């Protein structure tokens, strides 16, 4: 399945990098912390958000039509097509009010639980700058190119759930909510690999260093079509607090270089 994802990326990348005089290309990379919103810890809790933060890195290709003569000047000057392959990794623990306060058997089981997940993402986004045209940005070093982005990705994930008390799946090590079958699985936890899809929404800005090089910063939301990415998915029929699917927020720094053909 991983080979299929990589093949899909290079197919998309190959289509978008067909060289002709009407296309402008950039290549670069992104990296930065990834705040994973999962079933570990307490949602909207600072200690959870900080504690369950991982790291991501990616290779990026941008394509625009700013040199085209196709009577669609607004699209040519305000939109870029972005292809990306990226990797992220996050370790998980339970934080927040579910493990704080007066000790209990359940709290000790939660404290002992841990997990980790890695993701390889392949996808495409559309970047839109409502305020600055591509030619204006390219012309002036020191200028900014703010943008919004929307897109989709296919992701290969590998997740692992564990406990320092012993193997999960028995009452002595596992909180009751994770012993309940969930979405066809024997338990509400899983150590598995699989493929899922996600939607992307982001906002960012590029900074013009010189005619051929830019820096960038962006914040991006990635919402998955699965609740098993972190390895936990309590049965939502009985446990309403776990109704949201997994997601993560990227804080990316990056660099891009313009290609000449």
Quick take:
By secondary structure, the chain is of the alpha+beta class.
Number of strands: 8
Major sheet size, sense and barrel closure: 8 strands, antiparallel, barrel
Provide the CATH top-level class. Mainly Beta
Low-pLDDT segments: 2-21
Q: How many domains in all?
A: 1
Strand percentage lies at over 45%
User: Terminal Cα separation, in Å?
Assistant: 35 Å
Please state how the strands of the largest beta sheet are arranged side by side.
Answer: 1-2-3-4-5-6-7-8
Name the average pLDDT: 88
CATH architecture: Beta Barrel
Written as H for each helix and E for each strand, in order along the chain, the element string is: HEHEHEHEHEHEEE
Radius of gyration: 21 Å
Secondary structure: helix percent: 10-25%
The CATH topology assignment is Porin
Shape: elongated
Output the structural class. Answer: alpha+beta
Tally of contiguous helical segments: 6
Task: Note the topology.
Elements: H1 2-16, E1 24-37, H2 46-51, E2 53-64, H3 73-78, E3 79-93, H4 105-112, E4 113-128, H5 134-139, E5 144-163, H6 176-179, E6 192-210, E7 213-224, E8 247-258
Antiparallel strand pairs: 1-2, 1-8, 2-3, 3-4, 4-5, 5-6, 6-7, 7-8
